[in-house]
Amino acid sequence: MKPAWDQLMEEFKDSSTSLIADVDCTTEGKDLCETHGVKGFPTIKYGDPSDLKDYKGGRDFDSLKQFASENLGPQCGPEHMDLCDDATKKKIEGYLKMSVDRMEGKIRNAKKLLEEEAPIMHKVIAHLKKSKSEL
Question: pTM of whole model > 0.70?
Answer without folding.
Answer: no
